[in-house]
User: Which sequence fits this backbone?
């Protein structure tokens, strides 16, 4: 019998990453999964050998044997489940963004504090080897004082039109800029003070999906760092990867460039298809998933077992949400938004 029992709420695309990570972790068991989609629920339960499944998250939370839950529902559907999970005394790993309003984040944080449970927000790029090494170089003073950073994280148009059923109910800023702003805060140790963002809604809108095509955002930070964050949801599907992720980090004494998709470790060309297969996020080695997206989930489990505070706190989740709210507000008003 497993020592640690988990529940997963939301077993869609990213919920499967949680399924892979926890089902292959020694001494851990997924006791129950929950999703509104019964067909998907049945498919996941059979594939991962999970006995109990439910469409009602409250039923999962009522199981006293479950010590922790993963909340992997759409961006805007975290609050109600997270607050109920905290009230049920469950530790929790919540997918990014923590929530899509500051009020929702604060309600989750208050419930977590009241219940005394441990919570982590799954900003897994803090486990991405490229950024882990960038952070080590920055912290060791190799770059000197940070001057500017440029992060470009975008998806092909397949993501809002084909992969996500709820693309029109979220934005590329919630889905991708949230990763970037968390990285900026973490890498620099600075807080955002002013945000100016421009977006356009043409391509996706013409396809009946009412969400912006892209956001170009300039973010100023408390220590003088200026960042440019570029996020689009309309890249061509003929790209060899579903996403593009590039970073430029410039300090007074040094420069770092990161290329997280076309890193050339493996390139595959078959027939008419060009692919850069995943070698870092969650490749399978000896039948088990490895990689930084798995590592962040394992980190959460390790912290629960050791009684330690996870690397990404609820406060981090709240701060990232505040910046992404400012990105939306600025894009809508056409004016820079000042942050406290
Ligand atoms: N897809 C990715 O590449 C990716 C990567 C990292 C993080 N995320 C994050 O993970 C979260 C989920 O994204 P996804 O891509 O897996 O979406 P998805 O649509 O594939 O899966 C979400 C699932 O949640 C279920 N759901 C919705 N409301 C529910 C409820 N009240 N109770 C139970 N189940 C419910 C849906 O039926 C669906 O199956 C989001 O916050 C997203 O930003 C996604």
Assistant:
């Amino acid at each position: 019998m497993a020592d640690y029992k988990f529940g997963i709420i939301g077993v869609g695309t990213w919920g499967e990453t949680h399924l892979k990570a926890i089902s292959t972790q020694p001494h851990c068991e997924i006791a129950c999964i929950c999703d509104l989609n019964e067909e998907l629920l049945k498919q996941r339960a059979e594939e991962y050998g999970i006995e109990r499944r439910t469409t009602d998250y409250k039923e999962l939370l009522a199981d006293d044997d479950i010590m922790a839950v993963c909340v992997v529902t759409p961006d805007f559907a975290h609050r109600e489940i997270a607050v109920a999970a905290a009230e049920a005394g469950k530790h929790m790993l919540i997918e990014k963004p923590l929530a899509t309003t500051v009020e929702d984040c604060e309600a989750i944080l208050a419930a977590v504090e009241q219940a005394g449970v441990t919570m982590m927000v799954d900003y897994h790029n803090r486990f991405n080897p490229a950024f882990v090494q960038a952070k080590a170089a920055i912290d060791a003073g190799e770059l000197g004082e940070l001057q500017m950073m440029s992060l470009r994280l975008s998806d092909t148009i397949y993501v809002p039109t084909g992969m996500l059923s709820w693309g029109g109910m979220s934005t590329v800023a919630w889905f991708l800029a949230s990763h970037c702003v968390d990285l900026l805060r973490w890498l620099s140790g600075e807080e955002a003070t002013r945000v100016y963002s421009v977006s356009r809604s043409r391509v996706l809108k013409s396809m009946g999906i009412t969400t912006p095509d892209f956001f170009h955002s300039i973010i100023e930070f408390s220590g003088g760092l200026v960042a440019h964050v570029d996020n689009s949801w309309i890249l061509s599907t003929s790209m060899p990867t579903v996403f593009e992720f590039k970073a430029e980090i410039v300090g007074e004494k040094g420069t770092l460039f990161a290329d997280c998709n076309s890193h050339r470790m493996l390139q595959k060309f078959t027939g008419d298809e060009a692919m850069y297969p995943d070698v870092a996020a969650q490749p399978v080695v000896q039948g088990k998933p490895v990689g930084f997206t798995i590592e962040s989930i394992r980190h959460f489990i390790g912290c629960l077992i050791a009684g330690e505070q996870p690397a990404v706190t609820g406060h981090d989740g709240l701060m990232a949400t505040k910046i992404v709210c400012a990105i939306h507000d600025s894009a809508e008003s056409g004016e820079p938004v000042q942050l406290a």
About this structure: The longest strand covers residues 146-155.
